[in-house]
Amino acid sequence: MLELEQFVADCRAALSADEPHGAIREVVARAVSEPSTVLRAVGEPRRAELRKIYRSGDLTILNVVWAPGMTLLPHDHRMWAVIGIYMEAVSARALSEKDSAPLGHQVIHSVTNPIPRLTGAIHVYGGDFYGVPRSEWDPETLLEQPSDGERTMRRFEEANALYAKH
Ligand SMILES: [Fe+2]
Questions:
Q1: Closest C-alpha to 38, from 59, 65, 19
Q2: 4-165: what CATH class?
Q3: Counting CB atoms within 10 angstroms of each CB, which of 1, 6, 63, 136 has the fewest?
Q4: 109 C-alpha to center of ligand 1: Å?
Q5: 42 CA to centre of ligand 1 in angstroms
Q6: pTM of the full predicted structure?
Q7: pLDDT tens digit string along 24-39?
């Protein structure tokens, strides 16, 4: 049974491996291979959210729930990351339930939840996700701008407002 405290401890232990990114990926993959235990630990997703589970100078763990159709601006992290999906409807394979994916330091990416249901994922970052200035890119003009945490949280609330009308 996955306890969040145990998961955090496993991630912290993996940080001291020779290849922390790969070791964390194994921890996340093991966790999301049993989605029901992750759901018990983080709670059944009811709305879009970005919730902090753990934060330190060298590790950040978030629970992220994506609303149906929700899209985030292209952005970077400036630290490696592992994303593990523990809840998703049926197929649509890109990142599906039980999948985990590693992301390198410099990868610029956006996120779309293409399915008409909530998607839940554990995000583990190899650094202080909140303490590093990052960038976003306008999807039309491709202009780089500083990433803005409040703007991101507004996107989650806008997505919830739309979701509530379903
Ligand atoms: Fe991201």
A1: 65
A2: mainly beta
A3: 1
A4: 6
A5: 20
A6: 0.86
A7: 999 999 999 998 899 9
